[in-house]
Give the backbone structure.
Amino acid sequence: MFHHFHDKKSHSKSQGSISEDDLQRLIKFIGRKNILNAEIFYEKLKSGSLKKNEVCFTFDDGIKCQIDVALPVLEDQKIKAFFFAYSSIFEGKPDNLEIFRHFRMNFFKDINDFYKDFYLELNTDLTKFFKINEEAIKLKLEKFPMYSLEDIKFRFVRDFYLTREKYDDLMIKMINKKNIDIKDLYSKLLFSKEDLRTLDKLGHLIGLHSHSHPTKLERLDFNSQKKEYDQSSEIISKILDKDKNEINCMSHPSGSYNKDTLKILKDMGIGIGFKQVMKIEPEKGMSKINNSNLEIAREDHINIIKNMEK
Ligand SMILES: [Zn+2]
């Protein structure tokens, strides 16, 4: 599972990002012959003939650095991958997730400097909130070893203490204080419709990743979830000039889904869906890893890089 890449030009190094060189080394580490083209991986999954050593590459969130940094490597190595972009990007109303991330990583001395400003702007005593969530924070830290304690605490405040609206307002206030124009950042950071068409023409598989990338999709009711996926299917298929049922792969935004989500996706004819972690999550009704074709486990690229260095 890939997200962010950096280069020496427009994509600066940030939390969890890797370089073109890292990607090349990662391919070597896994072994080129073990990396299947997305279409082949999908076919073999359906027929139950995947071997233990066989993997595929997936790219989430429609982030421009994937086009600028990773795509040339993929093309050079003749690897066809899955790309999952959430569709509000293409409506000129992207989720601010990526923008906020860029802001956090590029306009502060370091991430802790950002957290300091963030809590100043929030201006609330969070002692009680952190106390109540102490155990859950600990669990999250184990589940996502690439994050620091401060990273996890920030995500808890963002996802559970604040509402989405309040978080967005707060961040936009911080951005405005630094005199940055958000719209300028969109084209630099996110896929255009043309990028999506290019990937499709090159033979990569384009799939769904919800419409607005809710941080916790599983907290939405059935109809809201259905709207998220219907809308994304509508938009993506239109951009690619395809039939809706030709878009049949997806990944769960922030790894968030529940039984409703799986039913919605199944009814839509989605045949393959990817999770965010390599762990069994019993609360989601999982009894084993790769519990169903809509729950294929993924390893974060950062964990693979860490393993390479051992
Ligand atoms: Zn995502």
Q: What stands out?
A: The chain has two domains: 20-94+190-309, 108-179. Residues 60-61, 209, 213, 253-254 surround zinc ion (CB under 6 Å). The mean pLDDT is 94. The beta strands are 58-60, 82-84, 205-207, 249-251, 272-274.
